Amino acid sequence: MEWEELELSTLQLDAIREVGNIGAGNAATALSQLLGRAVDMEVPVADLVSIYDIPFRYGSPEAQVCAVLIRAEGDFSCNLIFVMEEEEAQGLADLLLSMDISGMDPDVQIQMRDSALSEVGNIILGAFLNAISMMTGYVLPASVPSVAHDMLGAIMDVVASIFGVMGETAVIVKTTLQVMDVQQEIRGNVIMVPDPGALAVLLEKLGVC
User: Fold this and answer.
1) 3 state SS of 167
2) How many structural domains are present in the chain?
3) Which has fewest Cβ within 10 Å: 18, 107, 116, 178?
4) What is the pTM for the complete model shown?
5) CATH code, domain with 182
């Protein structure tokens, strides 16, 4: 089955959604432990889209966002990106830091917030990798996370230029994590861009090829 010909059936999307359910559940538990607060989640929605359509289907191309990226190798090689609106990302960073950094040097503030966002992005994306590992037995070592701030369209242009040579189709898992006692939503999209052939291998391992 060629990558370009791959279309997901309802059963296959349900399998991906189950990975998302487990991943989001793991992420909610990990964030709850990190923040010392209850974290709830919505049922994830999974879809298969062209990476070139993401800015138009999941937000305005001009929207300012924060993106955390990791690369997974091993039995199922893919790129994972967690994207949040910039304002929510900065609010989450401040919540994670649990201290007033407004009096610090602006460059230090940026570094501290990016470090916090890198940690939370790593937790969320790592939770999805762990879900895949749990369901398949695959070993999936991941790279150190990187953080970017830009317009959604600009970030996805970079994703397309870098990963388009690997595959033009992305699996999107859209979910919302909510920090309950501060009524703060963490609305974000987990974008998984598998290497050519990798998604077909994954679906076969999940028994829905």
Assistant:
1) coil
2) 1
3) 107
4) 0.84
5) 3.40.1550.10
